[in-house]
Amino acid sequence: MSFFDAINIAASGLTAERVQMDVTAENLANAQSTNNGNPYKPQAVEVQSVGSNFGSQLQTALGSAGAGGGGTGPTPGGVEVSGIVSENVAPQLVYDPGNPLANKQGYVKEPGIQPVTEMGNLITESTSYQADVTAMQTAKSMYTDALNILR
């Protein structure tokens, strides 16, 4: 395991959470966008792990500790955004007979975005972002303390 793996893993999480927050903000901004009768399609971020998983890292660490240490194992990698996809959410019909885009019954198609759900997602993403910042600061502090011991 490299000296800076903890920082690199936290940085990959920061990047993924930033993209998720951007997409959530875009969904909120377009919650009432009708686009000439074709409502906005909400977006979602797909995230995947990169590198080895925790189980293989643990087995490598346990195996190298029992054999005297010093072995190199699979590279930990963190996460990455694999794509941004359109969610398959049905549009909602809102009664607004004065709207020029209304149908004969007076209904307008609006995106099926639930602002409360999106705000909950934003809070979760913000909390995860802060956790990654804390992990990065903790790793930096540990590295600094290790260097101070060597003085």
What are the SSEs and their pairings?
Elements: H1 5-29, E1 43-51, H2 54-66, E2 76-86, E3 92-95, E4 107-110, H3 115-149
Antiparallel strand pairs: 1-2, 3-4
Helix pairs in contact: 1-3
Task: Tell me about this structure.
This protein has helices at residues 5-29, 54-66, 115-149; strands at 43-51, 76-86, 92-95, 107-110. The chain has 151 residues and is an alpha+beta fold. The radius of gyration is 23 Å and the shape is elongated. The strands form two sheets. Strands 1-2 form a two-stranded antiparallel ribbon. The protein has one domain (5-31, 43-86, 113-149). The longest helix is centred in the last third of the chain and has 35 residues, at 115-149. The two termini are 24 Å apart. The chain has three helices and four strands, in the order H-E-H-E-E-E-H.
Total number of strands: 4
Give the overall shape: elongated
For the biggest sheet, the summary is: 2 strands, antiparallel
Strand % is 15-25%
Question: Which class of secondary structure composition applies to the elements?
Answer: alpha+beta
* Mean pLDDT across every amino acid position: 87
**SSE run:** HEHEEEH
| Distance between the ends | 24 Å
Helix content: 40-55%
Order of the strands making up the biggest sheet: 1-2
Question: How many independent structural domains?
Answer: 1
Estimated radius of gyration: 23 Å
- Helices, by number, come to 3
State the low-pLDDT regions, or none.
none
